[in-house]
Design brief:
Function: May play a role in chaperone-mediated protein folding.
Distance between the termini: 63 Å
Family: Belongs to the prefoldin subunit beta family.
Shape: flat
Radius of gyration: 22 Å
Strand content: 5-15%
Largest sheet: 2 strands, antiparallel
GO molecular function: unfolded protein binding
Helix content: over 70%
CATH architecture: Orthogonal Bundle
Number of domains: 1
Keywords: Chaperone, Coiled coil, Cytoplasm
Strand order of the largest sheet: 1-2
GO biological process, one term: protein folding
Length: 130
């Protein structure tokens, strides 16, 4: 009976973590879709010769000048980038935790991070990286 309870607890923890991973992936997809829509809107505002534009905020439509609309969209873009990057980094940890629960080795290369600008510049100056 005790073994059955432990197995059930194990399966529940694995399923819960897997569900969190799937919901995070879905949220990343939705945020990325919103980021692309913002990018398209910014591009259209840049091309526009109008002085005012209509913005949708929730279910309300508001008329704003182009500069204000651009600044609002750019601020939203920055926040979306932060949220997406945070979710992606948390997702990597959750995937490794799930693999630990499943008694599998971590995904090779999953936790790699790109070189910073300073590291890249140092390698270029040293002639090691072109």
């Amino acid at each position: 009976m005790d073994n059955q309870d432990n197995t059930l607890k194990y399966l529940i923890s694995v399923e819960k973590l897997a569900q969190e991973i799937l919901s995070d992936k879905q949220e990343i997809i939705l945020l990325d879709k919103r980021r692309n829509e913002n990018r398209e809107a910014l591009r259209n505002l840049t091309k526009s010769s109008e002085s005012k534009c209509w913005l949708t905020v929730g279910s309300v439509v508001i008329k704003h000048d182009i500069a204000t609309a651009k600044s609002l969209l750019e601020a939203d873009q920055k926040q979306l980038n932060i949220d997406i990057n945070q979710l992606r980094s948390e997702l990597k940890v959750k995937v490794n935790n799930l693999r630990d629960l499943e008694m599998q080795p971590p995904v090779p290369g999953l936790m790699l991070v790109p070189l910073t600008h300073m590291e890249n510049e140092g390698l270029t100056n040293a002639g090691l990286f072109n």
